[in-house]
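User: I'm new to structure prediction. If I give you an amino acid sequence, what do you actually give back? Let's try with this one:
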Amino acid sequence: MKKLLTTSMVLLTFSVIGQKASAQDSVDSGGLFLEPAVTYEMGKGEMDFGAAGKPDGDLEGFGVGLRFGGHVSDIFFLALDANYSEPEFTDENGDFDYDLKSWTAGLTVGLQTPVVGLRVWGGYIPFGEIELDGRGSNQSNVTYKDPDMWKLGAGFRVGIVSLNLEYLTGTYEKLNIRNAGPITGTYSQEADRESWIASVSFPLAL
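Assistant: Good question. You get back a string of structure tokens that encode the predicted 3D arrangement of the chain. For your 206 residues, that looks like this:
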């Protein structure tokens, strides 16, 4: 009986030690992750062409995204965040309709619950540009550069699938015009962008 009690106490001690070690490993765990995404944007854009006009209208279209970063205990994450999209811009007055090509890159930091649950994040976007290819007779190539934009997002993750919604807002601070005769060049006119972006992403641990 004494040997049985002794053996049981030893086994219990090792079990407790093992549980503590496992918990500590979980707390200290971290790693890299990759997260591709498919996006859909709906929003508003307002541009400044100086004396040529100030078109104001809707943005809408599909895109793709990619995050690469690290996480700690599956709770905190920090990532480089890049996106490419081709939304359409429709001017309220019908004078300046464009097919857009947009790319952005920035830094995102966020929180999530392990394995299954809510994710929230915020990001700053200092790199990127948006190119405007005119339709019909409006063929001048226009690019806005030097973004100063922010985004906030939330999602719900189950396994390797996350359903997300982001709010993007900010300004492009430089206007570059090509193939427009005497007005070709770089100017200080700005463009504003404000959008809701829905996405399906796939967080993959590396």
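You can read the tokens as a compact description of the fold. Here is one thing that stands out. The longest helix spans residues 2-28.
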